Amino acid sequence: VPEIGVLALQGDVVDHMRAIEAAGARAVPVRRASELDSVDGLVIPGGESTTMSKLLTVFDMFEPVKKRLDAGMPAFGSCAGMIMLASEVLDGRADQQSFGSIPMTVRRNAFGRQIDSFEAPIELDGVEGGAFHGVFIRAPWVERVGAGVEVLGRVSSGEGAAGAADGRIVAVRAGSCLATSFHPEVTADARVHRYFVDMVRSSAGPVE
Ligand code: GLN
After folding, report:
1. How many domains does the chain have?
2. Of 28, 113, 165, 182, which is least packed with CB atoms within 10 Å of its CB?
3. What does the record give as the active site (predicted)?
4. CA of residue 1 to ligand 1 center, whole Å
5. In the chain, what is the straight-line distance between the N-terminal and C-terminal CA atoms, in Å?
């Protein structure tokens, strides 16, 4: 059973831990560098990316996490976690850092004030069944993807408040990294987490 860490400095840690367990892996909170060593993959939860960036620095966690990401550790970022994995952040704070694991440009709080938080259907490639219920909370969208980034999902509501968001990229994968603008951890549907657990399983090489 793969052991998957959930970065537990800030954000909706408990929901991700529950979803990872529901997807058949062991979930462990990661607060310090020593706790990173044993995990086979890492979830970066939703929350507030400016705060998360600051706490990663304060707790000397930014470099250790970046080092593992650069070495190919599988990671899944939702919402603020997506922002943390991006190479470029628009509408961020000047001092906000991100890991740059996925060559893409994300825009923070992109969906605007009227549709700050909303729910919309998404069609997800590679996730069994395809259709997924997207829950968006002050979410980023992906404005541009670089080479090697696979677009897995876009908003596909075609109606209502979320209509303005139609077609926006909200799920991507690049190599060992997965990111979603929405929050699959707040639904009872563990398919996205199962997809990530499968990524972790298939990347697990022999130890040493
Ligand atoms: N708006 C938040 C940020 O910029 C993300 C919101 C979320 O993770 N639900 O980090």
Report:
1. 1
2. 113
3. 79 (nucleophile), 183 (charge relay system), 185 (charge relay system)
4. 30
5. 18
